[in-house]
Amino acid sequence: MIADLQPYLPILIPLVVIQIILLITALLHLNKHPNVKTGSKTLWTFIIIFLNIVGPVLYFLIGRGDE
């Protein structure tokens, strides 16, 4: 199984690192700031966690409220 993934590791490792960084950054920002533009904080938490790379990007583009 691991031998099958060996050729894809140079692509997969950076994607996983980017996903983790985006996830942590978006969740920390959501927790730190009380306002979101659309939806609720609970909804954005689920979107960030379950939509992988797309969820945090959507949060920063659409959901992030005013500072």
TrEMBL record:
Localization terms from the record: Cell membrane
Superkingdom field: Bacteria
Cellular component annotations (GO), alphabetically ordered: plasma membrane
Membrane topology: Multi-pass membrane protein
Residue intervals of the Cardiolipin synthase N-terminal domain: 21-64
Phosphoprotein keyword on record: no
Keyword annotations of the record: Cell membrane, Membrane, Transmembrane, Transmembrane helix
Transmembrane spans: 12-30, 42-62
Name of one Pfam family that matches: PLDc_N
Protein name: Phospholipase D-like protein
Organism name: Trichococcus patagoniensis
